[in-house]
Amino acid sequence: MPKLVPISGKVVVVDEIPDCDICKDGTPGPYDFKTKHGPWAHGCEKHFNLLSAGGPGRLGVGIAQLWITADQVDDDATG
């Protein structure tokens, strides 16, 4: 997996990634997003792109955030 850079309000470092609320089979759900149906959910990339109220791939405060763990952070990009 490629290393990522935390971005305030978009890419957030957390201790652990929850499971996808839609798959319900243990699939990681690193996206925390407002759904088209109203409530927020944790979802895999597939469900994030299908169900995000903000549209596929859109991240930001009030729309969606990508949650990553410390081992996914690109140390070179953070200084």
Describe, in short, the structure shown.
The chain is mainly β. The protein is 9% helix and 20% strand. It has one domain.
Number of domains: 1
Helices, by number, come to 1
What oligomeric arrangement do these chains adopt? single chain
> How many beta-strand runs?
4
How would you write the strand order of the largest sheet? 1-4-2-3
| Strand percentage | 15-25%
Describe the structure.
This protein has 79 residues and is mostly beta strands. The two termini are 20 Å apart. It has 1 helix and 4 strands, in the order βββαβ. The chain has one helix spanning 45-51, and strands at residues 11-13, 31-34, 40-43, 64-68. The model has no long low-confidence stretch (mean pLDDT 93). Strand 2 (31-34) and strand 3 form a beta hairpin. Helices cover 9% and strands 20% of the residues. It is globular and about 40 Å long.
Could you list some keywords that capture this structure?
4-stranded mixed beta sheet; 79 residues; mainly beta; single chain
What layout of secondary structure does this protein have?
Blueprint: E1 11-13, E2 31-34, E3 40-43, H1 45-51, E4 64-68
Parallel strand pairs: 1-4
Antiparallel strand pairs: 2-3, 2-4
